[in-house]
Design a protein that fits this description.
493 residues, alpha/beta, nicotinate phosphoribosyltransferase, 7-stranded antiparallel sheet, 6-stranded parallel sheet, 18 helices, 19% strand, binds adenosine-5'-triphosphate, binds 1-O-pyrophosphono-5-O-phosphono-alpha-D-ribofuranose, binds nicotinic acid, binds magnesium ion, ligase, NAPRTase_C, transferase, N/Namide_PRibTrfase
């Protein structure tokens, strides 16, 4: 196996759980493949005890759907799968069906960079049951990870309060694709650049960086190392000052900064990667200012996350650029988002849509039935609530009641006349044809910024944030309750 050449072999159709294929076969065998269905992809709890989540990954989903075909290699692999009695798992007629299958679903989704909340669909898939089912695992894989990392990045960037955050995670990320996807999602979440050069090339993200301790250690003295770096990159000098003695390192950086200046160049700054970052950054700032380098930046790195950055801000550390790696790209404190993909409605034999619920002991796990939409209501540009609803329930209404999906005592009346309404689900595919143009990554990053700006700072607080109201329109709430009662059959002894 050569990972550079052979890994995906031009097809991602088998990037799925085996049970999706066994269900697909069983749907086909029982004549249900083409029955129309609606599935929603949503999460139940914000990651990191955050008050918000940033949607990311849609562009990957679009690409996946546009290339959703089983190639000859995939089909021959499936054709060779055997049951324990030696019989083939999948009969040739089914493999022919897969070969001819053309992606034909409608997909509606929340745009990347949108602030999203529990229970509201990030992606809605409507189409033949077999296709909806076969998309589940890949869609979850893509959206769960990129949404998680975009959210983590947004939190780190909020903690940095306007300072640049550089993403340095490649060496610690979860494998090759994890690293690439994390760099993309980190940029969407608000990072200014990545150290990951391949992500720069693939996604058009700015790349940047400093140098490592090994560079210093390869010379007899730190001063020699700084001079040689300045010689190679006079425009890009951020000297790593903590290899031996941080204060001495700053002194050496200043000395080389003066030589650069004599040659018409400016040192960009210093990086501190160990020790007490508040203490050393303040010393660096004082020494740089005193030596006539007030514009030189102090970059800090070393196991940073949003909490350490917040603490360093409180300590009045003089850091203006933050290099964040491991804890960002691995989502160290919560390594998975936990979004799910649930059947919400199915068209019966009479052609009538039937809403569906999965009943659970835990009310948080009861999904929201039907092909619903989400509206975000804003007052003077400020988000006040999100409503999950069925269009027919709100037509011609001047006010609506929304009810918390978990706690029905939490309700909010919205007077629609006073509010701006913004529909979150946008058409992405219609009958398998892409109708949405994926925006450039800069526009997605800007969308994150604009979206976050609409939310009160109490929802963006990193610890114990104020909960933003998201509710089911009352008729949809009632429909869900009635369906649960019906499926539970409480009237029976
Ligand atoms: N003033 C500070 N307040 C809070 N946390 C800090 C402060 N200074 C550094 N930190 C954090 O404390 C941790 C220090 O970790 P660690 O003990 O591994 O580093 P170190 O010993 O300074 O560096 P290294 O092991 O790389 O030489 C890091 O997560 C760092 O970001
Ligand atoms: O700390 P992170 O947020 O992951 O950021 C990336 C780290 O990677 C580099 O060193 P590395 O960790 O490889 O070595 P070090 O711990 O000895 O500095 C760099 O100096 C940072 O410390
Ligand atoms: O460019 C840097 O300073 C860098 C890159 C990767 C990891 N740590 C630091
Ligand atoms: Mg380290």
């Amino acid at each position: 196996m050569k990972i550079t050449k052979d890994l995906y072999q031009g097809s991602l159709a088998l990037l799925t759980d085996f049970y999706q294929l066994t269900m697909a076969y069983a749907y086909w065998k029982s004549g249900k493949s083409e029955q129309e269905a609606v599935f929603n992809l949503f999460f139940r709890k914000h990651p990191f005890q955050s008050g918000f989540t940033i949607a990311a990954g849609l562009e990957y989903v679009v690409d996946f759907c546009n290339n959703f075909t089983f190639n000859e290699d995939d089909l021959s692999y499936l054709g060779n799968m055997k049951n324990s009695d030696g019989s083939p798992v999948f009969v040739p007629d089914f493999l022919d069906y897969l070969k001819e299958m053309k992606f034909s679903c409608d997909i509606d989704a929340v745009e990347e960079g949108t602030v999203v909340f529990p229970h509201t669909p990030l992606i809605r898939v409507k189409g033949p049951l077999i296709q909806c089912q076969l998309l589940e695992t890949a869609l979850l894989n893509i959206i769960n990870f990129q949404t998680l990392i975009a959210t983590k990045a947004a939190r780190v960037v909020l903690a940095a309060k306007g300072d640049s955050v550089l993403e340095f995670g490649l060496r610690r990320a979860q494998g090759i694709d994890g690293a690439l996807a994390a760099s993309r999602a980190s940029y969407i979440g608000g990072c200014s650049a990545t150290s990951n050069v391949m992500a720069g090339k693939l996604f058009g993200i700015p790349v940047s960086g400093t140098h490592a301790h090994s560079w210093i250690m390869s010379f007899d003295t730190e001063l020699e190392a700084f001079k040689a770096y300045a010689d190679a990159f006079p425009e890009k000098c951020i000297f790593l000052v903590d290899t031996y003695d941080t204060v001495n390192g700053i002194r050496n950086a200043i000395e080389v900064g003066k030589i650069l200046r004599e040659n018409g160049k400016e040192m960009l700054g210093v990086r501190i990667d160990s020790g007490d970052l508040a203490y050393f950054s303040n010393i660096a700032r004082e020494m740089l200012d005193e030596a006539g380098f007030p514009d030189a930046k102090v970059v800090a790195s070393n196991d940073l996350d949003e909490h350490i950055i917040t603490s360093l801000k409180i300590q009045e550390a003089s850091i203006s650029v933050w290099g964040v790696g491991t804890k960002l790209v691995t989502a160290y404190d919560q390594p998975a988002l936990g979004a799910v993909y649930k059947l919400a409605a199915i068209k019966n034999k009479e052609g009538v849509w039937e809403p569906k619920v999965k009943v659970s002991q835990q009310s948080i796990k009861i999904n929201i039935p039907g092909e619903h939409q989400i509206s975000r209501f804003l007052r003077n540009g400020r988000a006040v609530a999100d409503m999950i609803f069925l269009q027919e329930d709100v037509d011609n209404k001047s006010s609506v009641m929304i009810i918390d999906p978990i706690d029905s005592t939490k309700r909010k009346r919205l007077n629609l006349g006073d509010l701006e309404e913004y529909k979150l689900l946008k058409p992405i595919f219609k009958a398998g044809q892409q109708v949405y143009v994926c925006p450039p990554i800069e526009a997605i990053k800007q969308n994150t910024k604009d979206n976050l700006q609409c939310f009160d700072k109490t929802h963006k607080r990193l610890t114990n944030p104020h909960v933003y109201p998201v509710g089911l329109e009352e008729n949809l709430y009632q429909l869900r309750t009635d369906l649960v009662f019906k499926m539970k059959n409480y009237d029976q002894e």
